[in-house]
Amino acid sequence: MATPLTADRLVTALRAEGVKVVEHPGWRTNNRNHKGAWGPVHGVMLHHTVTPKTMNAVPMCFSGTGDLPGPLCHGVIRRDGSVHLVGYGRANHAGGGDPNVLQAVIDERYNDRPPAPHQHNGSAGAVDGNPHFWGFECENEGNGVDPWPAVQVEAMVRASAALCRAQKWGAKSVIGHLEWSDWKSDPKGPDNVVSMPGLRTRIADRLTHPASWTPGTTTPKPPAPQPSGGTRMNLTHLTRTTSTPLLPDSPVRIYWETEYADEPNQHGAGGHSVLQNADWTANLHLFFSGLGPDEALQVRHIETTSGGVAEEGPLANVDGFKDKGSVTRVVTLTGRIQPTETLSFEVTNLGAATVTLLGARLMMHSTPL
Questions:
Q1: Cα(156)–Cα(82) distance, rounded to whole angstroms?
Q2: Is-contact 301 336, C-beta < 8 A?
Q3: Which of 215, 232, 166 is nearest to 5 (CA)?
Q4: Phi, psi for 198 (deg, rounded to 5)
Q5: Which InterPro entries match (predicted)?
Q6: Domains of the chain
Q7: How far is CA 330 from the centre of its chain?
Q8: What residues form DSSP beta bridges with 363?
């Protein structure tokens, strides 16, 4: 729950996040506030325009259609990645939705998706979302076939993250129209590129970096936290963004590609080993798709001595999801690694079909022995 940003703060937040902002003439006073209050706001809602590639959807979203007055959103995200601001205040974009979904967004308490929306008593939705959500209409035919340009999807991630950062929300405050109203399907596209769990994963990742961060680049190393008593605690932050197939019953070691934070000589670029001489606690974030509801991944850490002897840690199971779409799971692991040992992490697919590991992130705190 938050007071809506001012128009100036909205522009500032978007531009700070690297969004190419275009201010459509008259957008700051274009609203439906005479129909009711604007705010408090609880989140961001993403839509698709159902317009052909040759059409500029900005004028339509500013003025509205024959039966629905504008503005139809606050910003239009065009195929070239530019974000055109067309309204400020109450806008005709969310409409009626499920109060259980609204509460899940407010609490930011759900797994990969908020609870499935349902119509109430045959009405168009029990709660009006127009006062409570920022809205972005994204140019697409909405037929599930029209491709989404990567630059446009990146703009959807950045615009959503900008509002979450400025309004002090997490990524679970961002939902699609299909998650609000059960008769809607947007945003919709091929290959799950606009799957809401996947978009939320990318938004959450952005929020762990400064607003100016560009994917594929490193961020300044944060200072290592100091626990009480003066004992130094080290931070390790590694990521992998290259997709990896996980064949059934074939263990795969995770190779790390990017090192955001680590102690000197602790991690070799392009390797799977983390070198430590410490007690450690790690949060291993796994991003994957293709794992069904009755299937699981198995995760464990492995400590390997200088002589090549591997000692396997306890097993932890990661459950799949009913639609096999892109999901995120976090596994917490702990242990102690000796000076002559290396630490790595292994994932095994216990399902019947190949699963795609879309990426991984390791956040580990360790206290030297």
A1: 10
A2: no
A3: 166
A4: -65, -40
A5: Amidase/PGRP_sf, Amidase_domain
A6: 7-207 (3.40.80.10), 235-368 (2.60.120.40)
A7: 14
A8: 237, 283
